[in-house]
Amino acid sequence: MTERRNVKSVVATAADDHERSRDFLGPIQIDQLLGAAKKGRHGTRDHLLILMMFRHGLRVSETIALRREHVDLDQSRLWVPRLKRGLSVEQPVAGDELRAIRRWLVKRDDGLPWLFVSERKQPMTRQAVNYILASAGKRAGLGHVHPHMLRHSCGFALANKGHDLRLIQDYLGHRDPRHTAHYTRTAAARFEGLW
Q: Any idea where the Tyr recombinase domain is (predicted)?
């Protein structure tokens, strides 16, 4: 019986620690990260990769699984196939992102189906994405930046814009609204006008 309580308290503490920690980047930090990514060896690709991960709340596995056919340049749309039994949806692509996609595709001299490829013409790996983000984060002076921070950053940015829980839930592909509630409950915009 005592062991069970200890396990529960450890789990509760871990959950509380997660809720209290700031594991996302704000708008200024995102801009710094994107600027730093442009200055890397593969700046066009790395900038686009980070921009898309942030704008669409992509997990690293979803990012490396993106294919050229998922991007509709004429309609400015991206088909986002979600993993973890998430809701796959079509999302709009903003003008700056569309231009970044076109810049990247013009540089490509291969017919490979993946949207993001390595310099060896292979699909990107999780490790490569981790390295790209860590390097850009370091160059931007942001410390350690990891891929899931961009997904959280997307959720918090949408919540701070005042979007409701259901819309953010669908946008991020969450099946369970409890995963989305974290963004809307802690968003600064929610507390505007209290004083």
A: 20-195
User: Among candidates 126, 139, 132, which has minimal Cα distance to 46?
Assistant: 132
The catalytic residues are: 59, 84, 148, 151, 174, 183
91 forms beta bridges with: 78
The predicted model scores a pTM of: 0.85
pLDDT for 68-97, tens place per residue? Answer: 999 999 999 999 999 888 889 999 999 999
CB neighbours of 65 closer than 8 A, spacing ≥ 6?
A: 81, 83
Q: Is 144 exposed, middle or buried (0-12, 13-18, 19+ CB in 10 A)?
A: exposed
The three-state (H, E, C) secondary structure of 112-134, written as one string: CCECCECCCCCECCHHHHHHHHH
